[in-house]
Amino acid sequence: MVTLDLMVLIAYMVGILAAGFWAKRKVTNQEEFLVAGRRVGPWLYAGTLAAIVLGGASTVGGSGTAVVVLLLAQGIDSGAPIYAGLGLGLASYIVVSFATRPSDPGMKSPAGPEAMVKS
């Protein structure tokens, strides 16, 4: 059974690589790659959009559910990670803003827009 599973997996990978190389020959520019040359019909577009939304929702929802179940099993309120993340984000912002503040008020900040412009 393990050999059959491995053969199916290898055949799938070879098929995906073959499809990728075939599609690589048809794509000539960035627009062709990103939006399929704007030749996608409404049915294919609707199916693609549904796959994106449902795939993202199931991924985020599934991992979110797992986190909540694990936290509740440990006796931790499910909102605790959110509050901890917000607190860490705020603390990081404060530390970075003080660390990049110039010591001399007339001096320009190294993190400001002036740092992006070459003199």
- The computed structural class is mainly alpha
Silhouette? extended
* Mean pLDDT, all residues: 75
Tell me the β content. under 5%
State the separation between the terminal residues, measured CA to CA: 67 Å
Q: What's the β-strand tally?
A: 0
> Which ranges are low-confidence, i.e. pLDDT below 50, for 5 or more consecutive residues?
none
Work out the helicity level.
55-70%
H and E order: HHHH
Number of helices: 4
Using only CA atoms, what is the Rg? Answer: 25 Å
Oligomer: single chain
User: What is the makeup of the main sheet?
Assistant: none
What does this entry look like structurally?
With 119 residues, the chain is mostly helical. The chain has a domain at 27-100. The protein is built from 4 helices and no strands. The protein has helices spanning 2-26, 30-35, 42-73, 80-99. The mean pLDDT is 75.
Kindly summarize this structure in a few lines:
The protein has 119 residues and is mainly alpha-helical. It contains 4 helices and no strands.
